[in-house]
Amino acid sequence: MTWWRDAAIYQVYLRSFADGDGDGIGDIAGLESRLVYLRELGVDALWISPWYVSPMADGGYDVADYRAIDPAFGTLQDAERLIGAAHQFGLRIIVDLVPNHTSDQHPWFQEALRSEPGSPARERFHFRDEPNNWQSRFGGPAWSQVEDGQWYLHLFDASQPDLNWDHPEVREEFRSILRFWLDRGVDGFRIDVAARLVKQAGLPDKRGRFEGVPTFDDEPGEPDKDRPEVHEIYRDWRLVLGEYGNDRVFVGEIWVVDPERFAMYLRPDELHTAFNFAFLKCAWESEALRSVIDQTLAAHAKVDAPPTWVLSNHDVTRHVTRYGRKDSAFMKRVHDVPADLAQGTRRARAAALLSMALPGSVYVYQGDELGLPEVFDLPDALREDPVFRRTDGRDLGRDGCRVPLPWGGDAPPYEFGKGGAWLPQPPDWRDLTAAKQLGDADSMLSLYRLALRIRRSEQALGDGDMRWLVSEPDVLAFERDPGFTCMVNLTDHPVALPEGTPLVASADLIGAVGVPAELPPDAAVWLRAG
Ligand code: NOJ
User: Fold this and answer.
1) Ligand 1: does its nearest atom lie under 6 Å from the Cβ of 255?
2) Coil, strand or helix: which one is 223?
3) CATH superfamily of 465-528
4) Which residues pair with 95 in a beta bridge?
5) SS3 for 526?
6) Distance between CA atoms of 406 and 361, rounded to whole angstroms?
7) Global pTM value
């Protein structure tokens, strides 16, 4: 089965999705209560952010027990019930696997702390007498010192010690964790930090390009990223997955810029798919988009892997806000530039149709379908992202894209749950609640529901090929067989529609009876030939 080649996958950031027990934190019960919404939205699978036992120093990406559910989210039984319920609704479940690092509360790290330098317990991590010059992805040094003077490596927060993937016990443990969740019926794994598990032997210094400000994109050949040996791990995991048939999948979180190196992770005996961050980061500019699309298709074709199309996730500024900026390319650490949210919303609507029309699978981050913007004015005391603390507030961090969803009602917490919400929701989200948007045929939610439904029924969409059509500058137009056309207008003026009957448009088409219709600026349309 190859459902993943054209699936629409919805990312559930669990603590902000829906709260079932009234403690202000989203949980499994809340998710279960909204499965109908997700089925009606028209997605095929859910990717659930880490739900394991965790001190939540990094929203659960600091795992203390990979085989148990954090009490804030529920119990293992709740998770098993959720998997079963989702399957009954025709929704597959992808869980988030965090293999690069554990929590400092994980029993292995606690044992390492109690053990001597050079002891086997310390071998499972990267302990050294002297640190090298690596910086944490979250800001500040990538090394912290323990009581006896040794240092340990953490590419992220100090509470997230990196595992030593040269250690056979680490490898065996993750095979076992995979089987644990496969035995519980999950349909796949999203692999956190997938390109960084293996570090260059000896942990050599980097070439000194750090001034305390980490970037998302390293140069090729970095000692902590995209090492050739990392592929062995995925070949090994693929064999484990194979024990369970051929319809379970791996989705890699791979921030590797070079399309060819990126595609190496998607060779037939490695991961099935990976997030297309080149598309996510791309500015709302026709030539940049065209070139990212072309590069994506070419690189994936070589390894026969389906591309993915991603606009947002829980780590980046929401795209309604990004696309509202003069410079709409994704950049970290930008919070003080103005954004025209009306423009951003128009473009986000068009981008939704573009991403759902391209060949491959598509991701929807919770709240994309409501057109939520980034929230900047959170009280500092409530910010939880370690990035905020580790950069002394120079980077506001990622809490602003993780604000709990507004489901209904006129005031916070907008039916997120019976209690409050762990981060405050803006007052103007009363107009963006799911309930309000369901009653409005022109809303973002109605557009997503309609487009996902058409995407499912339209034979041309999902996996397959596309052909660019000749179009005027700053117009993206392509065909897919049989008989489907998508056009996106990135000019500042209306453009004539191509042949065909409009199926859905992100904005009202211009024209009256007898007058050829036109597509307004910042809009997209799908058409069927004939
Ligand atoms: C990527 C995850 O998406 C992000 O949220 C997390 O902070 C880092 N990996 C570290 O696990």
Assistant:
1) no
2) coil
3) Golgi alpha-mannosidase II (2.60.40.1180)
4) 48, 189
5) strand
6) 26
7) 0.97
In degrees and rounded to multiples of 5, residue 286 shows phi and psi of: -65, -45
Q: How far is CA 345 from CA 227, 231, 502, in A?
A: 39, 39, 21
Say if residues 270 and 239 touch (Cβ distance below 8 Å). no
Nearest C-alpha neighbor of 50 from the set 17, 11, 97: 97
pLDDT, one tens digit per residue, over 389-430 is: 999 999 999 999 999 999 999 999 999 999 999 999 999 999
The class level of CATH for 107-153 reads: alpha beta
- CA gap 410, 429 in Å, rounded: 8
Angle (CA) 120-123-125 rounded to 5° is 140
Do you find a cis peptide bond into 413, omega within 30 degrees of 0? yes
Give domain limits for the chain: 3-102+167-452, 107-153, 465-528
Rounded distance, CA 11 to CA 47, Å?
Answer: 5
**527 pairs with which residues across the strands?**
485, 502
Q: How far apart are CA 361 and CA 464, in angstroms?
A: 10
Best mutation site among 11, 16, 47, 61 for ligand 1 pocket (most ligand atoms within 8 Å of CB): 61
Tokens describing residue 390: 């580790």
CATH 3.30.1360.200 fits 3-102+167-452, yes or no: no
Q: 5 and 360 in contact (C-beta within 8 Å)?
A: yes
pLDDT tens digits, residue range 122-180?
A: 999 999 999 999 999 999 999 999 999 999 999 999 999 999 999 999 999 999 999 99
Kindly state the DSSP code that residue 485 receives in the 8-state scheme.
Answer: E
Query: What letter represents residue 231's amino acid?
Result: H
Six-digit token pair at 312? 């947002």
User: What's the start-to-end Cα distance of the chain, in Å?
Assistant: 32
Taking Cα atoms as reference points, which of 136, 43, 131 lies closest to residue 94? 43
**Residue 128 CB: number of other CB atoms within 10 A?**
14
What 8-state DSSP symbol labels residue 19? -
d(CA 226, ligand 1 centre) in Å: 17
Collapse the DSSP code of 528 into the 3-class scheme (helix H, G, I; strand E, B; otherwise coil) and give the result.
Answer: strand
Token pair recorded at residue 479: 């065909």
Alpha-carbon distance of 344 to 248, in angstroms, equals 36
Distance 13 CA to ligand 1 centre (A): 12
Tokens 């904005």 — which residue? 507
Q: Would the CB of 143 count as within 6 Å of ligand 1?
A: no
Side by side, the strands of the sheet bearing 249-252 are 273-274, 249-252, 188-191, 92-97, 45-48, 8-12, 361-365, 308-309
Nearest CA to ligand 1 atom 11: 61
